[in-house]
Amino acid sequence: MFGVGDPNADLMFVGEAPGFHEDQQGVPFVGQAGKLLDKLLAGIGLERSDVYIANVIMCRPPGNRDPQPDEIEACESHLFRQVALIEPKVVATLGNFATKLLSGKQLGITRVHGQEQEVTLGDRRVLLYPMYHPAAALYTPAMLKVLEEDFRRLPELIGRVNTPTTEPAPVLVPEPAVQLGLF
Length: 183
Known about the structure:
Low-confidence stretches: none
Largest sheet: 6 strands, mixed
Mean pLDDT: 87
Strand content: 15-25%
Strand order of the largest sheet: 1-3-2-4-6-5
Shape: globular
Number of helices: 8
Number of strands: 6
């Protein structure tokens, strides 16, 4: 399953793998977690059509088990190619697998959620923003508040990346006038 959304999006979400409903429909995040994602996006004034959504692996693992290292390795070039084509400013990872793969660190989502970091994905420098997967709030309702707080930071992060950093114009100091002599 390929990613979907705005091909010029400043914000890209990366989840783990297609679930049952995603596998059936060929679209990422269409089940209950997808509905919650839509609600969280609406809470910050965005719609699904404003962002790009992809997964670490492109097909559903048998029995919905965790992706195996060889499956991740087989699909990561497709994900990096999507990042290169979309050119997002911010990549929000949803859950452990996406966070570990894209950060290059084995730190779990509990330790790193909500802590942005600059990373290079392929040949593109982006702001990586780890977040809990929306499914976490479906299983543990108290997680919804954490997700909402992390989502509220997204507009600021996108704005920070989109603000050009221009150096101040040099101040020109005129040289003092020198009176020329006739002789």
